[in-house]
Amino acid sequence: MTSDVRPPQPLLYDAFISYSHAKDKPVASAIQSVIQKLGKPWYRRRMLRIFRDDTSLAATPELWPTLEKVLDQSRFILVLASPEFARSKWCGMEVAHWLKHKSLDTFLIAVTDGELKWDEAAGDFVWDEKTPLPAVFRGHWKNEPKWIDFRSWREAPNASDPKFVDAAADLAAAVHGLPKEDLLSQEVRQQKRALRLAWSAAASLTILAAGAGWQWYEAEAAKRAAIASEKVAVAERDRAEKNLALARGAADDLVFKIAQGLREVQGMRVESVRKILETAQSVMDELVRSAPDDPRLLRSRAAMFSEFAVTYMATGDLPRAREAAEQSVAISRGVLTKAPNEEGAEDALRFGLTRLAHVKFRAGDITGALAAYRESLDLAKKLANAAPNDIDRRRQVSVGLSHVGDTLMRIGDRKGALPYYEEALGITREIAAKRPDDTEAQRDLSVAIEKIGDLQARVGEIAAALELYEEALVIGRKLAERDRTNMQDQRYLGISMEKIADLRSRSGDRAGALAAYAECLQIRREMVALDPENAGWQSELAVAYGKLSDARMEAGEKAGGLEAHRAALDIRRKLVARDPGNAGWQQALALTLQRRGDYTKDAGDTDAALAAYEESLAIMRALSARDPDNHDLLTDVSVNLNKIGNMRIAAGDVDVGLAMLEDSLAIRRRLVAFDSSNVDWQYSLGASLDYIGNVRMTREDVSGALAAYEESLAIFRRLVATEGRNVRWRYAAALAMSRTGDALVARKDLGEAIKRYAESLAGFQQLSKLDASGTIFIRDIALTAEKLGDQQALAGGKSDALAAFEESAVHFRKLADGDPDERLWRVRLVIILAKLSEVAERPRAIAALREGLAIMEALQAAGRLPLAQERWPDLFRSYLDRWLAENTVSP
C-alpha cells in the first residue's frame, strides 16, 4: 500500500502505544516502563522515548490534532490488541492514520485479550467477534506478522516479572533494531556498570594525571639540560605541554561527566556520592601538583569544585556544597591575583560567586548570598562594559540583576528590588529587539516582565501586575504557537495563565479567573497526554486542578469544585504510590489533603475535615522528622497544627486545641529566629499570636491575651514600616489594634482601648480608600466604629460616640443594601441605630428610632425577624413614643 506524501516531521518518539483505555491502562503502563528502560545507562532517565496517551479522548476530542502530529513524529506504533481495542473509534483512527502514512514494517502487535489467528489460504487474519484488531487492518498483510502474547498479564501486569520483561524485550528489540539476546545482555551489563563507570573514570584520570605529571617533570629536567641540547629541551617541553593540555581536557570532561551524572542517579547514598567526588578530586589535585602554576589547570580545578557544589546541593548536603563553592571562589581569586590578565579568569570568578550565592541562599544565609550575587554582578558589568557589542555579556548582567532582585525580595525589600528588576527588564527588551527570532531572548523578556509583575502583586498593586502579566502572556503565546512541540514554552504558557488567573481571582473577576484556570488546565492536560510518565508535569497538572477547584468553589460551583479537587488528590496519591520515597510528592499530597480539610469543613463535615487535616499532619511530621532543617515542611506542620487546634477548640476540647496552637507558635518562633528577615515567617508568627490571644480571651486570661495581641501588633507594625503599600500587612495591623482594644476593655482600661480602636478604625478607613470597589473593608469599619462608639459613650464623650455610631451606621447600611437577603446586617444596623439614639439630640434620635422601627417592621412582615428580636418593634415604638412626648427623657 502506498502512503500519502506528507512533509517530513522530526521523529521525537521511538514508539507510539495505541490501546484501549477501558481495560489496558495498567498493562500499557507496565510495557512502556520496561521498553523505555531496557539497556538504559545509569545516567539516563530512559533509553527510548515512548508516547502513551493517558487521557480520555472521548471527553476531549480536541486532542486529536495533537495526537495526529505525535503519530507523525513516532518511528513505530505498538498496538495492544483486544476486543475493546477493535471496537474503539479512537484506536481505529490511530491505526488508520498510521496505515495511511507509515510503513507496515513499523507496526508492532501485543495481544492482551481475544484470539488472533492467521488464515494461510486467505492470506489474512481470521475475522470474527473474537478478533482483537479493528477491521481497518483487513487485507494489509501478505504474510503473518509477529505478535507478542500478553494475555496472562492483562489483569495483573508486573514489570519486574522476568517473563513479562522477556516478552516486552521482543518489542523493545524491534524498536532498538537489535536482537533480543543482545538487548538483554546489554541490560545486564548496564546494571553492573552503574557505579563502576564513575570509579573507572576516576582511574582514567589517575593514569592521565600521572602520565602528564611525569612528562612535565621530564620536560623540566630537559629544560635544565638545555645547555647540552637546546633543541631536545624545546621538543620535550612542547610534547609535555601538549600532553598536559590533553590531560587537562580529559580531566575536565570526565570530572564534569561524573559530577553531573551523579545528579541523575535516583536513590544513591550521599556517602557514595561523596566518595566518588573525592576520588575525582584527588586525581585533579595530583594533576595540579604536576603543574602548580598553570592558570588554566587551576581554573579547571575551580570549575570542578563549582560542579561539586551543585551535585552536593542536589543531594541535600549543604555544608559540603558550601565548602566546595567556597574552594572554587578561593581558587579563582588566587588565579586572578597571580595573573590578572589571564583570559577567562574574571569570568570564572563571576560564575563561582553565583554558584556560592545559590548555596548560601539555599542554606538560609541570605546576607551572604546577597553579597556574593552583588560581587558577581559587578564583575558581569565590568566584563560587559569591556565588550559593549557582546549581547551575551549583556544577558549575564541582566541575570545578575535578577539574582540580586530576587534576594532582596526574599528579605522583603521590595522597594530595593524594583530598580534591579527594572534595569534587568531594560536589558532584556534591548536584546529581544535585536534578536526577534531568538526564542531564548524572547523568553528572557517574558520572565523579566513577570518578575516586576510578581513584585507588584506582592504589594497589592493588582491592576499594574495584571497589565505586566498580560504583556508577558502575549510573548508566551507567540513562543508556544511557534513550536507546539517545545514543551518548555508550553509549560511557561501554563505558568503565565496560572498567574493571571490568580490575580483575576484576587481582584474579584471570578469569570476571568475561571477562564484562565481552565486554559492553564487544558495546556497541562495536553502536555501530560504527550508524556504521561513525566511526573513533574503530572504535579503541575494537579496544581491546575487544585486552583480551578478553589475558583469554582468561590464562584459557588460546589460540584465542579469538588470534582476538580478529587482529580488533584487522585494525581497526588498516584505520584506518591509510584515513588513513595519522593519527599516532594509526599509534601504535595499533604497540602492537597489540607485543602480537602478546608472544603469539608466549609461543607459542615467536621469529621471528614479533621481526618484530612490529621492525615496531612502525619505526613508532614514524618517528612519533617527525616529533614528537620527543611523550613517549608516546618511551615506546613505549623499550618496544620493551627487548623486542627482551632477545630478542637470549636468542639470544646480547648486544652488540646490550645496546646496545638502553642506548638505551632513555637515552630514559627524557631523559623523567625533562624531568619528574622523573612517577612512571610514574621507575618505567620503574628498570625499565631493572634490565634492564641483569641483563645486566651475566651478563657478570661485577659493578661495572657493582651500580651499575645501586643506582640502580634508589634510584628505587624514593623512589617508595615518596611513596606507601607502591602495591604495584607496593613489589614493585619489594623485588626491587631482592634483585638488589643478588646483586651484593654476587658481590663477596664477605657482610655487606652479608645486609642487602639481609633487607630484601628483609621487603618481600615485608609485601606478602604485603596479599594476601588469600596466593598472589601466595609464590615471592618462598621464593627470597629461600633466598638469605638461604645467605649466613648461609657467614657462620657457623647459627641465622639455619636460620630462613631454614625460611621458604623453608614457602613452597616452599605452591607444591608449590598445583600438584601442577609438579615444579619439589618439587625446589626437596628442595634447601631438604638445606640445612636442614646447619645444623639432629640431630632436625630427620633430619626434613628424611626429608621430602626421601619427595618424591623419590614423583616416582621416578611416573616424574617429572628425569634430573639420579636419584641424589638414594640420596644422601639415605646422609645419613640417617649421621645415624641417629652423633650428630656431618653429611651
Automatic annotation (TrEMBL):
Residues 11-160 form the TIR domain. Transmembrane segments: none annotated. It holds the Pfam family TIR_2. One of its GO terms (biological process) is signal transduction. This is Tetratricopeptide repeat protein.
